[in-house]
Design goal:
By secondary structure, the chain is of the alpha/beta class. It has two domains: about 110 residues, ornithine cyclodeaminase, domain 1; about 150 residues, 3-Layer(aba) Sandwich (Rossmann fold), CATH 3.40.50.720. It has nine helices and 14 strands. The strands form three sheets. Strands 1, 2, 3, 4, 5, 6 and 7 form a seven-stranded mixed sheet that branches. β4 and β5 form a beta hairpin. The relative contact order is 0.12. It binds 1,4-dihydronicotinamide adenine dinucleotide and ligand LZCNNONV. The site of 1,4-dihydronicotinamide adenine dinucleotide (NAI) has 25 residues, from α3 and α4. GO terms for molecular function: pyrroline-2-carboxylate reductase activity; thiomorpholine-carboxylate dehydrogenase activity; thyroid hormone binding. This is Ketimine reductase mu-crystallin. One of its GO terms (cellular component) is cytoplasm.
């Protein structure tokens, strides 16, 4: 039997272009939300690695539409100190759907960075205010960088602001994106007047408070992906219209949804938890 093909992070980085990724994801999200079973993706199973403050998530999916069977395996860690090792590392296994033969093992870290940012960008395309001049990014890690890249590629913001917990991280962010950005010294300064907000921190307590958010602003709440993590406060959660990619996932994994007690019959399906 042939060995699976290995696809490195460098190759994924070169091949995975937002111009192709965004329209494909838009179709996939539509099919996933249609409820017709064209894309099957159960809520991921996550194992806690308590000794190291980490998690291992297994994320299988099958698209009957594309006849593609794959699983992402992602490890992610909460850290107090900056590290040269990414907080999230992933691999994607691609199988022949007819027999289950492993065809390829590819880097999933770059895929995670780009896929997540692309879904936020798609949600923003549909949900942002008509006049959206100011983008605010809270967090300054890998997702902050990928969100900056796609948001500045797809939209024409007049100003991009970033806030990060540590100066070291924010400086690294500014060096990496190499584009115009206003570094803010508080969340409030970054958020006031922003039309689109991206939260990509690993916070476990709310960092974004309703009182700072401009009415009608669109928020991509990305970071609180464990049931006991928070980024948005209760008032904001209760006053917002929520869009999620999967109700089941949001109710099992999103700390902002679970701990604010907002889940009920009013969810629409589109964006991410
Ligand atoms: N919803 C989704 O599909 C995905 C969600 N994520 C989540 O997005 C978040 C960001 O991921 P990455 O950028 O890859 O991580 P990262 O480790 O590269 O960056 C995390 C950032 O959050 C900051 N941070 C950590 N603790 C904080 C706290 N208590 N308050 C404020 N800031 C804090 C760090 O200083 C760093 O700037 C993580 O929570 C991650 O789990 C990541 C990938 C996909
Ligand atoms: O969807 C993903 O990929 C991830 N979500 C939460 C954190 C780990 C990666």
């Amino acid at each position: 039997m042939a060995m699976p093909v290995l696809i490195s992070a460098e190759t994924v980085e070169k091949l995975l272009r937002y111009g192709e990724l965004v329209p494909r994801l838009e179709v996939a999200l539509g099919k996933f939300s249609s409820g017709k079973g064209e894309i099957v993706q159960p809520v991921r199973s996550v194992l806690a690695i308590e000794k190291y403050n980490g998690y291992l998530g297994v994320m299988p999916a099958y698209s009957a539409h594309d006849d593609v069977l794959a699983t992402k395996i992602v490890a992610f860690y909460q850290r107090d100190q900056p590290s040269s090792i990414p907080a999230h590392q992933a691999s994607v296994l691609l199988f022949d759907p007819e027999h289950g033969t492993l065809k390829a093992v590819m880097d999933g870290t770059v895929i995670t960075e780009k896929r997540t940012a692309a879904v936020s960008a798609i949600a923003t395309k549909f949900l942002k205010p008509v006049q959206a001049d100011v983008l605010c990014i809270l967090g300054s890690g890998a997702q902050a960088v990928s969100h900056y890249k796609i948001f500045t590629e797809m939209f024409s913001f007049k100003e991009v602001r970033v806030w990060g917990r540590t100066k070291e991280n924010v400086d690294r962010f500014a060096r990496t994106v190499r584009g115009p950005v206003r570094v803010c010294s508080s969340v409030k300064e970054a958020v006031l007047g922003a039309d689109v907000i991206v939260t990509v921190t690993m916070a476990t307590e709310p960092v974004l408070f309703a009182e700072w958010v401009k009415p009608g602003a669109h928020i991509n709440a990305v970071g609180a992906c464990r049931p006991d993590w928070r980024e948005l406060d209760d008032t904001l959660m209760k006053s917002a219209v929520l869009y999620v990619d999967t109700r089941e996932g949001a109710m099992k994994e999103s700390g902002d949804v679970i701990l604010s007690g907002v889940f009920g019959p009013y969810f629409c399906s589109l964006s991410q938890s």
